[in-house]
Structure formats: C-alpha cells, structure tokens
Amino acid sequence: MKTLTPAMKDMLATQTPIQATVTDGGIPNLGPKRSLRVYDDSTLIFNENTGGQTLANMQKGSKIAVAVIDREKLDGYRFLGTPELFTEGAPFDNAVAFAGENGMKTPKFAVLVHIDDIWSLRSGPDAGKKMDQLSA
User: Fold this and answer.
1) pLDDT of 5-31, one tens digit each?
2) Domain range holding 25?
3) Is the pLDDT of residue 136 over 60?
4) 102, 27, 113, 105: which is closest to 64 by C-alpha?
5) Are 117 and 66 in contact (CB under 8 A)?
6) How many domains does the chain have?
7) What are the backbone angles phi and psi of residue 16, rounded to the nearest 5°?
C-alpha cells in the first residue's frame, strides 16, 4: 500500500474527486464523488448512496481509480485502489456520521479504497509518473 502525503490529503479535502470503475465487459463508469475523503494514511473512504453502476462494478471485482486535481495549480493525483464494501462496523459508522454531518442520506455502503498506486497529474515532465518514480 502507498502512503498519502499531507499535500495529497489537503487536495482531497479541498477539491472534488472523480472516481472510475469498469464493468466486467470493460466499459468505464465515472463520476464525481463528493463524499470521498481520507480514512487513514493509506486508505480513502466514500459513501455509496445510489447502489448503481459503481456498486455493481465493485461487487464484480473492479478496481477503482480516483483523480483529484487543482486546476489553478496545474497539480493533481491519480489513486488506484482496491475497494472493500461495508454495511456495518467502523467504516460504516464513519460513513453514517459523515452523512449526518453533511446533510446526506444514510449510505447503502461505506467503501474503503485501499491505495495500491499513486500517480502524479502535475503538469510538466513528471505528469503521469508514479509518485515513487519521480525525480528528486
């Protein structure tokens, strides 16, 4: 697993992340995920409210990608992770509390995204490179 830096955490807290999954036939599904946030230093969490295509894709084994960008700074990150679904326990309690604090409906699932890799989306020579392969 990869570790989130303070800069990554700040960007995830202040910008709207976009998440993507794929169907078992390889059709991409993507959209904004305003409930997506940092769970711990190597895990993201979001509330799954609709129970639609994203959920179906994850239940069939899709990885999940999350992109977050700061357009003004021409900076950003792409996270690739393995989703884990919860309907009870600490992650679900976290999701229910987040929903209550933010005027959202109770989620159907809490989704932990265990981060497998992180890429830079920063403009310039390091664009698209894995964070652990960037030049010093």
Assistant:
1) 999 999 999 999 999 999 999 999 999
2) 6-133
3) no
4) 113
5) no
6) 1
7) -85, 115
